[in-house]
TrEMBL record:
The keyword Isomerase does not apply. Keywords: ATP-binding, Cytoplasm, Kinase, Nucleotide-binding, Nucleus, Ribosome biogenesis, rRNA processing, Transferase. Residues 110-120 are annotated as: LID. Residues 11-21 have a biased composition (Low complexity). The gene is LOC110745840. Residues 35-58 are annotated as: NMPbind. ATP binds at residues 15, 17-20, 111. HAMAP family: Adenylate_kinase_AK6 (MF_00039). Its EC number is 2.7.4.3. This is Adenylate kinase isoenzyme 6 homolog.
């Protein structure tokens, strides 16, 4: 079965604007926004809580099983800070949002991140960990890094992505 609408993964370090971008893009294009963090909580797709990182330990197999049918249908924007465990065949575009470290530090501080969690995420952004993960997990020509420092960047990204969706054609 060929998908009639594309699937897009929006990934990046926490605080880069994945949920804001994904929500706005879903609204603009009528695609379905899937926030994996919310899905994990709602459906208990985790193996408990990590006190050190202050987050759920997601069960990647359970997440993939839960999403399989939905992803095959197409028309999804998946929002998550990891990307290497999703099947490559699911995505037509992988967007990696990137944010200046000073901007990111301020965003994560406002969220109340602990010093270790803050440091871990800033290092992740400095070393472009998510961009490298995306490039290793998906075809290079579907990985699209986008700057996400400001409201203007989000607006520009929405225009770019909306146009990409408008032009997308299913592969046969």
């Amino acid at each position: 079965m060929v998908r009639k609408r594309p699937n897009i993964l929006v990934t990046g370090t926490p605080g880069t604007g994945k949920t804001t971008t994904s929500s706005a893009l879903a609204e603009a294009t009528q695609l379905r926004h899937i926030n994996v963090g919310d899905l994990v909580k709602a459906k208990n797709l985790h193996d408990g809580w990590d006190d050190e990182l202050d987050c759920y330990i997601i069960n990647e197999d359970l997440v993939c099983d839960e999403l399989e049918d939905t992803m095959e249908e197409g028309g999804n924007i998946v929002d998550y800070h990891g990307c290497d465990f999703f099947p490559e065949r699911w995505f037509d575009l992988v967007v990696v949002l990137q944010t200046d470290n000073t901007v990111l530090y301020d965003r994560l501080t406002r969220r109340g991140y602990s010093e270790s969690k803050l440091s871990n995420n800033i290092e992740c952004e400095i070393f472009q960990t998510l961009l490298e993960e995306a490039k290793e997990s998906y075809l290079q020509d579907i990985v699209l890094p986008l700057k996400s420092d400001s409201i203007q960047d989000i607006s520009t990204n929405l225009s770019t992505l909306t146009e990409w969706i408008r032009r997308w054609q299913p592969s046969t």
